[in-house]
Amino acid sequence: MKKAEKVSKHKKFKFDTRIFAVIGILIFLYIISKSNLAYLFSVLANLDYRFVILSFLITILTIVLKSVKWKLLITEAKFDYSIARSIIVWVISFAYGFITPGRAGDFIRVFYLKQDADIPKRKGFIICLLDRLVDLASLAIITLVLYSASINIPFQLIMIIILFSLVSVLLAVILDKLVKYSHERIKSLYYLSKDFVIEVFKMYSPKQVFFPFSISITSWFFSFLQSFLILLAMGKTVPFLIFSTATSTAILVSLLPISIGGLGTTEATLYFFLSSYLSMEEVIALAFVSNVVGLWIPALIGFVLNGFKKLEGEKLK
After folding, report:
1. What would the pLDDT profile of 15-47 be if each residue is shown by its tens digit?
2. SS3 content of the chain, % helix, strand, coil (to 5)
3. Which end of the chain is more exposed for a tag (fewer CB within 10 A), N or C?
4. Residue 1 covered by a domain
5. What is the tens place of the pLDDT at every residue in 249-299?
6. Which of 249, 255, 284 is nearest to 267 (CA)?
7. Longest dimension (CA), the chain
8. Are the C-beta atoms of 52 and 227 separated by less than 8 Å?
């Protein structure tokens, strides 16, 4: 009886981490409250839609590239999945990722892989997780390179980053030796994670990941270009290097589970970097149109495709 009471209390006071998504909304509302809405609407009303259309075409190209990258990872894992199906499922998962903090909904692809190609969920999860990690790693490297090129990161700082990486590897080796003396739950979690990493290396060699990694870097460049075209549609100019640095940082911040679709965090990050070139209203307009073209429309298409998938699954395979 006491055990049941403890369980019920635990459920009652369980903290819902989704509440963190409110932070982004509050940031956005604060930014809007400090803006001149009349000027904001004026900026939106005077867009050059030729650049907006071109931006959307770049978005389509980016989606295809990211889908091809995922398809390659599936193929390298010795599974068969058509490129057309890869694009459809990628867009559907993008839609679910868009509405979930940290874009966790992106992992719905695991269930599609199981349903469409009978790929075990564990292997499907590895494929999708590796796809996410490739994107994150390539974006982190691009961001570091952009920072070093645009704001002249000191050589000492680069050496500190390298030293920190080496120390992390050393600590990982020491942890592997000492974990056997830890608590059973920690030990169990560690060995489970270790087995998972070993399975990843069994499925993929560094050579097999290199080409998807290269595609990921290319797709990020097109993502920056997509937003830059919106900037041109507004009749504004910012050095592409600085703009790419701001955009890459905004994307990384948007992945934190404190907003939905980067709402609030994207605007705040862009303004921090671009305030010397753009007003607050222009940054909001830039983020809004970029999100409509690069996020909202693809997400809407993804939900429509998901609806057709339920009705006409066989036709979409």
Report:
1. 454 565 677 778 788 888 888 889 999 999 999
2. 85, 0, 15
3. N
4. no
5. 998 888 777 766 677 788 888 998 898 999 999 999 999 999 899 989 999
6. 284
7. 69
8. no
* Token pair of 197 as six digits: 């990493």
CA 158/CA 135 separation, integer angstroms: 22
- Residue 158 and residue 28: Cα distance in Å, rounded? 34
Asked, for residue 31, whether it belongs to a domain, the answer is: no
Structurally, how many domains does the chain consist of? 1
Q: pLDDT class for 70, splitting at 50, 70, 90? A: very high
CA distance linking residue 127 with residue 209, whole number of Å: 11
DSSP H helical segments within 46-82, as ranges? 49-76
Helix pair 265-274, 240-254: axis angle to 10 deg: 150
Query: Does residue 168 sit in helix, strand or coil?
Result: helix
Burial of 236 (0-12, 13-18, 19+ CB in 10 A): middle
CA 237/CA 278 separation, integer angstroms: 9
Would you say residue 90 lies in a domain?
A: yes
Is pLDDT above 60 for 3? no
For residue 49, what are the contacts with CB-CB under 8 A and spacing of at least 6?
A: 233
DSSP label at 312? S
More confident residue, 184 or 214: 214
User: Which residue type occupies 12?
Assistant: K
> Is 51 part of a structural domain of the chain?
yes
